[in-house]
Amino acid sequence: MKIIGLSILHYGSDYLGDAIWSISDAVDEHHIIYSKQPSFSFTTGLKCPDTEEQLRDIAESANNKIVWHSYESFGHEGHHRNEIKRFTNVKDMIVVVDADEIWDKADLDRSITEAANTKARNFNINGFVNFWKSFDYVVIDWFQPTRIYRYDQPNETKVLNATIYHLGYMITPEAMRYKLSIHGHRNDIEAVHGSADKYFDKWLNWDKPGCGIVDLHPASETIWHDAELYKGKLPR
After folding, report:
1. Containing domain of residue 113, as a range?
2. DSSP characters over 33-67
3. In a shared domain, residues 46 and 157
4. Fewer Cβ neighbours under 10 Å: the N or C end of the chain?
5. Looking at 138, 166, 194, which one is the last position of a domain?
6. Is residue 236 in some structural domain?
């Protein structure tokens, strides 16, 4: 059984190198499934902040095990993610890291061992740390995204406790505006906040907890009411 790293990519240069580095020691190969067009069902007139060449240079500088696959477009994000099945054996273990995520290396090693000894196909991660605007603040939710797959196992889902640092709301304003314009939940953003631009202004102008800007989640009115001070350990 090989351990295969997977990142699906269209933009995301801010932390891509750190994301790839965070799983580099644990994987035998790291496949990048790159799409020149967004795969979240929405398009935009804004220019993508990153080129394929820039992203590939970052990836290959972070890990010499990169296998790069370039596509013009995908129908939706599910097609984009599932493309990895074309390049791997069904017995391989897939470890996902998005461009704005950093695995805790010790937790990753333990999670791989647990997944290897558990009969399940999908492994959800309990322990995402969602930084908000800086490493000083976090926003809390109960989501447990799937980040490890074993396609040869029974179609069951197990939860692993591990730390993954999510930095998707610590990116440059240019990248954030682009992110919102192609967001898979853009309809929800518009329903909750009025428009992607209004949410962008909320994100940009938020200063500190209690500043008066609340309900910070882009697509929900029931979570991320406000950020709170982060007192945990930091990623490298």
Report:
1. 3-166
2. EEESS--SS---SSPPSS-HHHHHHHHHHH-TTEE
3. yes
4. C
5. 166
6. no
Can you tell me the distance from the alpha carbon of 156 to that of 26, in angstroms, rounded to the nearest whole number? 24
For residue 93, which amino acid is it?
M
Q: What is the pairing mode between strands 122-132 and 146-150?
A: antiparallel
Give the whole-angstrom CA distance, residue 33 versus residue 51: 14
| pLDDT tens for the 236 residues of the chain, in order | 999 999 999 999 999 999 999 999 999 999 999 999 999 878 899 999 999 999 999 999 999 999 999 999 998 889 999 999 999 999 999 999 999 999 999 999 999 999 999 999 999 999 999 999 999 999 999 999 999 999 999 999 999 999 999 999 999 999 999 999 999 999 999 999 999 999 999 999 999 999 999 999 999 999 999 999 999 999 87
Measured in degrees and rounded to the nearest 5, phi and psi for residue 185 equal -110, 35
Q: Which of 53, 55, 46, 37 is nearest to 100 (CA)?
A: 55
- Cβ count within 10 A of residue 167: 22
211: its two tokens: 């500043």
pTM value? 0.96
Rounded Cα gap, residues 198 and 1, in angstroms: 47
Numbers of helices and strands, H then E, in the chain? 7, 10
